[in-house]
Specification:
Blueprint lengths: L8 E5 L4 H12 L3 E6 L2 H13 L3 E6 L5 H15 L4 E4 L14 H29 L2 E6 L13 H21 L4 E8 L12 H9 L9 H12 L10 E4 L13
Parallel strand pairs: 1-2, 1-4, 2-3, 4-5, 5-6, 6-7
Helix pairs in contact: 1-2, 1-7, 3-4, 4-5
């Protein structure tokens, strides 16, 4: 078995922990060389170490995703170094809970820059390289919050993720003829360092209202990404896959 991504070069943003680390590990296991792009170098180094220990190929690129010029330079630098660019997964995200009336422009601008604007920057930088080699995959970790449901004190986050859905559809339409697909995954509640900040009793209460009765695992999102990155998804573009254990299905928590 040579894996589903043999010889591919993938940039994964936010690869230092949680969903991003799982995506990086699974892509490497399937034969891709992974560039782990993450803000916290120590986390990224651990991702690279884990991949290497499993026999995969990975390298670290520290990056601040709100710095759009640095993001564009990262794509060009990686593509030049490897002489190819097959997959970009924009998984890095800025999340915080702030009441709308207390939301300042610094928090709002950061959420829009990291979650939404970086989609444009990464894609603009990647397209020339992908077009030159005959195609590629652009993938985004979105969220059910924004495109499908709302959560108090997250209007800035929800707006950015709602915009991601519009970006995916529009970019997919423009790039389809170049054999560049653009898709996303919308996770619900996933067991990551971010969600573990909740007290155990709160996590149990949250899980109670998920039809699957548990939080998702990071690898369950990563495997959806793997499918969209693979040749098996070559005719799928402009779509998102919801990975939420059914949490967005009931009209009311009573039915969950």
């Amino acid at each position: 078995m040579v894996g589903r991504l043999p010889g591919k070069l993938a940039i994964v943003t936010g690869a230092g922990q949680g969903i991003g680390r799982s995506i990086a590990e699974i892509f490497a296991r399937e034969g891709a060389t992974v560039v782990a792009a993450t803000r916290t170098a120590a986390h990224g180094e651990e991702t690279v170490r884990l991949i290497a220990a499993a026999g995969g190929a990975a390298e670290l690129e520290p990056i601040e995703m709100s710095d759009q010029s640095a993001v564009a330079a990262l794509v060009d630098r990686v593509a030049a170094r490897h002489r190819r660019l097959d997959i970009i997964v924009h998984n890095a995200a800025a999340f915080s809970r702030v009441p709308l009336e207390k939301l300042d422009d610094t928090v709002l601008d950061n959420a829009l820059a990291v979650n939404l604007k970086a989609c444009f920057t990464l894609t603009r930088a990647a397209v020339p390289h992908m077009r030159k080699q005959g195609g590629g995959r652009i993938l985004v970790t979105s969220s059910v919050t924004g495109p499908r449901v709302a959560m108090p004190q997250t209007a800035h986050y929800a707006a950015s993720k709602g915009g991601v859905g519009g970006f995916i559809r529009s970019a997919a339409l423009e790039l389809a003829a170049d054999n560049i697909t653009v898709n996303g995954v919308e996770p619900g509640y996933i067991d990551t360092p971010a969600t573990r900040h909740n007290a155990p009793e709160r996590r149990a209460a949250m899980a109670h209202y998920i039809p699957a009765k548990r939080f998702g695992r990071p690898e369950e999102v990563a495997y959806a990404m793997l499918f969209l990155a693979s040749d098996e998804a070559s005719y799928i573009t402009g779509q998102t896959i919801v990975v939420d254990g059914g949490s967005t299905l009931p009209e009311s928590p009573v039915f969950a």
